């Protein structure tokens, strides 16, 4: 995360910086419109700052969290909120640019001057505004807040547009008692800062305190140009504690994944219970390697973890079926004793999966698909839940909602099964509310 500066800014970046963008050309009027004529509503732009450098985790902003690039979680929330006239990613890195565009965001190539470890968020935001004269309000969303939901952004946009606030920032309520810090070697005693030790309140009897959680900072242009992200008519927006996740400071990656799977935003479409998983054979069930014996018999290998994953899915009531465009030996596959219906030599996988779906009386949202090849693309785009092994081709990876950490034939099915179970728990919990 870029460091957030709230005081007077450093000098603004020069117009001659090497930035892909168009410098401002039009004179702004007092309401934020351009030129004369009918005044337009203020242009609210979402801006996610995501430079390539990271001292902790290399290219952290696009590292996969629960199968999705980290920045993808906030981009999905911003785009689906409908609160912004434009959604931007400011970056200096080609790979981050590609991921941003895949999710539907526009990209501002920031200059090297505002891409240093010492650069602040304010530096990058001011540069962005210098090249985007149409923007009146900036919603600076942190890429490291993967549990952000569209409803939060919609409410803040309303506070800015309808209630006239100049700046709004996110906070979370915490019930933590604070004590004064004592420097080593100094003979002093610590003092309570927000409690009376003689009358310690119970949690339910204390409202707690509000802390910035860094998820977002919304501010109007005139305030930013004066060097502030917080100021003027100012308000906070309190986020739910379970949605307040900051990868930078709060928790490590595995724990963050569990939080995201339980509390993250997965898109406009409501999740439905999965009833059928279709898995490509070559490259998903197997690693794609084929061995031929001396008597010309085909030999394949698979991971026992994947067989266990298939067994667990079936025990939970999820049908598992296998498919391949190659003329696999059904006798060889049957010897694996997976007890799954399969079809091989299939040129049109979508047609077969559609037939299976209709046969079981399912809608597409109740079907999951694990694929790794170009021939799987249409199925991956159509189903309710899609996944690909870590070594799947780029076409397949771009089409899915979850990318496994495991390679094909090396635990990808078991991993995807665990992902399905977690999402089904989320579906069941929402049904009980």
TrEMBL record:
Its EC number is 2.7.7.43. Keywords: Nucleotidyltransferase, Transferase. It is an enzyme of class 2 (transferase). Catalyzes the activation of N-acetylneuraminic acid (NeuNAc) to cytidine 5'-monophosphate N-acetylneuraminic acid (CMP-NeuNAc), a substrate required for the addition of sialic acid. Has some activity toward NeuNAc, N-glycolylneuraminic acid (Neu5Gc) or 2-keto-3-deoxy-D-glycero-D-galacto-nononic acid (KDN). Transmembrane segments: none annotated. This is N-acylneuraminate cytidylyltransferase. GO terms for biological process: CMP-N-acetylneuraminate biosynthetic process; N-acetylneuraminate metabolic process. One of its GO terms (molecular function) is N-acylneuraminate cytidylyltransferase activity. Belongs to the CMP-NeuNAc synthase family. Residues 1-40 are annotated as: Disordered. It comes from the Eukaryota. Pathway: Amino-sugar metabolism; N-acetylneuraminate metabolism. CDD domains: CMP-NeuAc_Synthase, HAD_KDO-like. PANTHER family: HAD SUPERFAMILY MEMBERS CMAS AND KDSC (PTHR21485), N-ACYLNEURAMINATE CYTIDYLYLTRANSFERASE (PTHR21485:SF3). Homotetramer; the active enzyme is formed by a dimer of dimers. It catalyses: an N-acylneuraminate + CTP = a CMP-N-acyl-beta-neuraminate + diphosphate.
